[in-house]
Amino acid sequence: MGKITNKVLTDLEYPQVCQQLSEYCVTDSGKEKALNYQPFDKKKSLFFHLDMVEEYRSSQYQDHTIPNHGFDNIDHALDQLSIENNRLELISFRKIKTLSETANEHIRFFRKHKELYPRLHQLTDQVELTDDIVETIELVIDKFGEIKNNASDRLADIRAQLNDVRSKIGSSFSRALQKYQQDDVLADIKESTLENRRVLAVRSMYKRRVDGKVMGHSKTGSIVFMQPSSTQKYDREFNHLLYEEDEEIKRILLWLTDFIRPYKELLESYTRLLTQMDIVSAKVKYAELYEGIKPQITKEQQLELVDAYHPLLLIENNKKQEKTYPQDIKLDKDQQIIVISGPNAGGKSITLKTVGLLQLMLQSAMLIPVHEYSRMSIFDQLLTDIGDNQSIADHLSTYSYRLKNMRNFINRCNDNTLFLIDEFGTGTDPELGGALAEACLEEFYDKKAYGIITTHYANLKMLANDTPGIVNANMMFDRKTLLPTFQLQLGEAGSSFTFEVAQKNGIPYRLINRAKKKVERGKVRFDKSIAKLQTERHKLSRETETYQKKRRDINQKEREYKDINEKMRDKLERYQELYDANQQLIRLGEKINQLIEVFVSQQNKKSLMSNFMKIVEKEKAKKLQNSKKERKKQHNKQKQTQQEVSKKVDKIREKKKTKEKSAPEKPEKPKPVIKVKDRVKMEDGKAIGTVEAFKKEKAVVNYGAFTTTVSPNQLEKVS
Question: Is the dihedral of CA 664, 669, 673, 674 positive or negative?
Answer without folding.
Answer: negative
